[in-house]
Amino acid sequence: MDPKIEVRSYQPADREQIISLWSAVFTDEPAWNESDQLISRKLTVQPDLFFVCTIDNHIVGTTIAGFDGVRGWVHKVAAHPDYRRQGIAARLMNAAEQGLASHGCTKLNLQVRAGNSQAVAFYAGAGYEIEDRVSMSKQIQK
Hints:
Elements: E1 5-9, H1 15-25, H2 35-42, E2 50-55, E3 58-67, E4 72-79, H3 88-102, E5 108-109, H4 117-125
Parallel strand pairs: 4-5
Antiparallel strand pairs: 1-2, 2-3, 3-4
């Protein structure tokens, strides 16, 4: 029997599984991306754009999307290492794109850490293009 793969919106009971997943996928996360706090913050803004992918009701992937009125963004695109190459990230990105479009978003931006050639190849295969930009940031709250 084939496993049941589903993408759906975040539910409160998902929190612990997501924190565990992110620990396995994002091993070098900076302190300002503390998982429990990040989830709480996301739930205050466009919680409908927080997606999880499940296989037989077990969380194996996530993505968080947001629309600022000008551009859409995605964060935390994660597929559990044991479940990669099964279309999880593609399904999550499709859900994010559809969700952002429903908010009126016409262009989606994303960032990939330098050196993550697998992610760059994945996004290029999904139709994303590298733009000539410099990514800058500033932590404004600790």
